[in-house]
Request: fold
Amino acid sequence: MQNRYLLLIVFLSACLTGCKSYSRYPIDNKPKVAVDTALLGMWRCAEDTDKTNFVEVQNFHDVYHTEENEHGGIENYLASEIERLKKENGPQWNSATDPTIADLRNETDNRKYLYYFTYFDNHGVNLRYQQWNGHLSTIGKNRFLNIHYHNPYTGDKNEKGWLLVRIIKVAHDTITTAMLADKTLKNLKSSKEVRSRITARLNDKRFYSDTLHFYKINKYHFTLNKAIKLANKQRGQ
Reply:
């Protein structure tokens, strides 16, 4: 597999590569680990063949409460989405059962746990998979990212769940990760089963694939437009 696609696997593009190593359930049924601010910021991947590409990692506040959000916060954004969907779907529409509204309310409830990933390809100026979110889980002293996954390129509406990525090492503004490569994860029936499977195979090297090495190019994580400008100034890094 070409290196330029590895980032897309780890950051939400298994749908483009045909990867089936996803789980229908996260490791924890509900997020429990607060955001580690050391993971926020602008990152490049050593294995990415285009050294101007980068990943922006943000938190909930960055996404919904900065000047880039024209709605001025999650509450106003939620209200505008309810109004939009009501107009599109007519009087029979019910916000209590709409999946888009349910997802937004879930994000609000779990705001202190969520990360948001944006991959900038095409020489670091093209946004891909903006605002796909994830959260951390721990198994013993080991940390894993649960990244919300959905494949829009398949006719199977049930192909959705979580990409699970182990954070192998964090040191001196560098991160080493590996994706769980067990294609049977999607057959598990609960978060408890997912946790048990990972625990049993925690040190089995065959359980992982696509080891990647990221290095931080800037601590900035507030708005995407400014991140592009900062990255362009640092193309030589």
